[in-house]
């Protein structure tokens, strides 16, 4: 987001004002586009008072459980309003000791224990509860990374264990093919797939055959692969809001190549989309509860 006030604060001053480490602030900027600072004649970042307030509010919201990609597209006024809201994601905690065990494994930088607890969750909990716990764990990893508690390497190791746990859970469900096949993918340059995997798990738990193409699929190849696999529905995911213009272009290419008979659902937050116009044949799905409801409606027996 671009500030309307003049930038006069350097990175060191910004770090002191917000209480966020400089390397984390740079990651927030490059990875999520949370701020777009001016540059000095020497190429150094210069932040405005609006930038400082914006990042302070973002830190408060992230600590309260909001995800950084969801905050990136919001204006400062919208962030202030969200901070004033009485509802916080982490107020809806699962009454399950696995929550604390998973968060402790993250805080103690123990990816092996994290993976074991998550695998147990998928084995022992109903599908919706397992996905809630999985999603909460992903938010906790994101918060700890944004706070500088864990580095990028540890974030990747923990995410890899989460991916292993949920793909194993999908494979371990009842034999596929009892209900309509559903394809899952992200388009080119969208590498975030952990939310997409949660949707695939819910579809598999509902008895659908899951055709998982994964992340970073070219539009033409995805359209052809979806048709050849006999999918009755294509589910996409989009997280990285700073690449929304490229995403809109690739989505248009996909829809031009895909038969109208195959509906497309898109899992994304309004903040990530940033107001881009979706094709009328694309259905925006805001959360997993809505995903489950739409599955039941789309494929009524």
TrEMBL record:
One of its GO terms (molecular function) is metal ion binding. SUPFAM superfamilies: Cobalamin (vitamin B12)-binding domain (SSF52242), Putative DNA-binding domain (SSF46955). It holds the Pfam family MerR_1. Gene3D superfamilies: 1.10.1660.10, Cobalamin-binding domain, Methionine synthase domain. This is MerR family transcriptional regulator. Keywords: DNA-binding. PROSITE patterns: B12_BINDING, HTH_MERR_1, HTH_MERR_2. The keyword Transcription regulation does not apply. It comes from Phreatobacter aquaticus. Residues 8-77 form the HTH merR-type domain. Residues 179-301 form the B12-binding domain. The keyword DNA-binding applies. InterPro entries: Cobalamin-bd (IPR006158), Cobalamin-bd_sf (IPR036724), DNA-bd_dom_put_sf (IPR009061), MerR-type_HTH_dom (IPR000551), MerR_fam (IPR047057), Meth_synthase_dom (IPR036594).
């Amino acid at each position: 987001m671009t500030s309307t006030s003049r930038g006069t604060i350097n990175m060191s001053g910004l770090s002191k004002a917000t209480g966020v480490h400089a390397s984390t602030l740079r990651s927030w900027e490059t990875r999520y586009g949370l701020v777009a600072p001016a540059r000095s004649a020497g190429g150094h970042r210069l932040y405005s008072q609006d930038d400082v307030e914006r990042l302070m509010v973002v830190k408060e919201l992230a600590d309260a459980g909001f995800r950084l990609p969801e905050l990136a597209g919001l204006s400062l006024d919208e962030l202030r309003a969200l901070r004033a809201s009485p509802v916080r994601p982490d107020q809806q905690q699962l009454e399950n000791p696995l929550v604390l065990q998973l968060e402790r494994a993250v805080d103690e930088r123990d990816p092996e224990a994290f993976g074991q607890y998550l695998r147990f969750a998928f084995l022992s909990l109903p599908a919706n509860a397992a996905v809630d716990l999985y999603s909460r764990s992903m938010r906790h990893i994101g918060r700890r990374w944004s706070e500088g508690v864990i580095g990028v390497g540890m974030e990747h190791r923990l995410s890899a264990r989460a991916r292993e746990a949920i793909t194993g859970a999908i494979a371990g469900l009842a034999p596929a093919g009892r209900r309509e096949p559903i394809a899952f993918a992200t388009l080119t340059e969208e590498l975030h797939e952990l939310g997409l995997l949660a949707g695939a798990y819910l579809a598999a738990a509902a008895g659908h055959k899951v055709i998982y193409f994964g992340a970073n699929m070219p539009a033409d190849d995805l359209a052809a692969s979806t048709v050849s696999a006999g999918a009755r529905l294509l589910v996409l995911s989009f997280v990285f809001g700073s690449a929304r213009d490229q995403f809109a272009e690739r989505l248009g290419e996909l829809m031009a190549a895909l038969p109208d008979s195959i509906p497309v659902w898109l899992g994304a937050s309004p903040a990530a989309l940033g107001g881009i116009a979706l094709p009328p044949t694309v259905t925006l799905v805001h959360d997993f509860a809505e995903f489950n409801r739409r599955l039941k409606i789309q494929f009524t027996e």
